[in-house]
Amino acid sequence: MTKPGGSIANYAPFIGLRYSFSRKRSRFTAVISLVSMLGMVLGVASLITVLSVMNGFAGELRGRILSLVPHGYVSAPDGVSDWQALGDQLLQAPGIDAYSPYISEKVILASGRSLRGAVLTAIDPAYEQRVSRASQAMVQGELAALADDSFSVVLGGSLARMLGVRVGDSVEVTVPRLTMTPLGVFPRSKRLTVVGLFEVGAQPDTFQAYVGLAAGQKLLGPRRSVEGLQLKTADLISAPQTIAQLADQLPEGYQLQDWSQTQGSLFRAVKMEKVMVSLLLLSVVAVAAFNIVSTLVMSVAEKRRDIAVLRTMGARASGVMAIFVAHGLGLALVGITAGAIIGVLLATNISAITLFIENLFGVKLFDPSVYFISELPSVLMPGDVLMVTLASLALSLLATIYPAWRAANVAPAEVLRYE
């Protein structure tokens, strides 16, 4: 130090890092320091890996569900009679790529003794393939089989299994509309022939059913109009803004919805789950960070003589405090860096790791018939890595403040009196 009270930058980081990696510490202090770093490694690596896997699940869920769900809807309370003219008008709007007419209703499907609630959607297969990938999801039969006027139906694979039906079997559909007969008022019902099955590996497989538009108009009504139009936009992410801009081009009375409104609760739940899991795993990092408190408190007790010597040589209290902040951050940075590297490696290779475990032990961790997936999806986002490292660093900095303050308040006279 060149003069009493010299700049902290001259000695604080050097001495602090020297304390962090010195071999002259007591064995107990060294063990506590190692545990703190390993805890930081475990917490940071786990957090990055889990966030990446949850990003992968969210992306997989979004892709599978939205392969059937249109980007947006335009509907009217009294139905749309001239839907082709409306669709052609909407195609002139920027960002609208395609449209398809639809009628949708919640119904009850029955086969033998099995009863299941379902969503029955009447579509025109030629238009439907422009707004969704339903035709590509067919595992038996073809969506085009709904084009004729016959009362046929395409079911989700899981829904068909729950009803115990196959292609060629028939199901009884009951619609919540009343039919007047000489014997009284009865719910409207009709027997439909199963002509195809689809699977996207998500919830629509368990409740979605399709009929042709002509059959749907007879069964669900009104007969000469549709409930509205399904829309496909140029970009899925900006679909809410694109659909909202249509309000100025449509007459009063039309209602607009986008996928974030129809499926928003599901994706908000996934996002909330990611936040809660992040907070829970961040507690592991917090425990590791606050283990640094124990390390620094013991280090302050060991270095009391060194602190006293520094103070008598002219070091300020802020300089001593900076030494022990650097000491704690040195330990934390090693753990955070190692944890981030391990977390990134795990996140980018998690599928290969699960496959190796399955082959090694001869087990199937993810049965596609149960989990809709055969491997762990993972999407590593740089923002998540940055957030985890900054949060860990902030917790580590917070953990160093109290021990560093105690070191700064060591009285040199009392320490040196007994030396």
From TrEMBL:
Its main location: membrane. GO terms for cellular component: plasma membrane protein complex. Residues 33-247 form the MacB-like periplasmic core domain. It is a multi-pass membrane protein. Residues 280-410 form the ABC3 transporter permease C-terminal domain. GO terms for biological process: lipoprotein localization to outer membrane; lipoprotein transport. It comes from the Bacteria. The keyword Cell wall biogenesis/degradation does not apply. It is found in: Cell membrane. The chain crosses the membrane at residues 28-54, 275-301, 322-346, 385-405. Keywords: Cell membrane, Lipoprotein, Membrane, Transmembrane, Transmembrane helix, Transport. PANTHER family: LIPOPROTEIN-RELEASING SYSTEM TRANSMEMBRANE PROTEIN LOLE (PTHR30489:SF0). Belongs to the ABC-4 integral membrane protein family. LolC/E subfamily. This is Lipoprotein-releasing system transmembrane subunit, LolC/LolE family.
